[in-house]
Design goal:
Shape: elongated
Mean pLDDT: 79
Helix content: over 70%
Keywords: Signal
InterPro entries: Myomixer (IPR039014)
GO biological process, one term: skeletal muscle organ development
Largest sheet: none
Organism: Phrynocephalus forsythii
Radius of gyration: 17 Å
Number of domains: 1
Protein name: Myomixer, myoblast fusion factor
Amino acid sequence: MPAPLLALLPPLLRALVARLLRVARQRLLPLLRRLGARLTSAQSRQALLTCLLCLLNLRKKADDP
């Protein structure tokens, strides 16, 4: 691969990952909210919240330069 294309690869990959995470979040969050509403156990809700926070943290790390 020529050098100019290699220089563009990291920003393109970062943009692609950010877009994929955004789409995944848009699709998954409504499903997770409905699931959370159906859960009756506080422990189950806490586990779901932990997963959501983990996903949001991954998105934040992907968006950081």
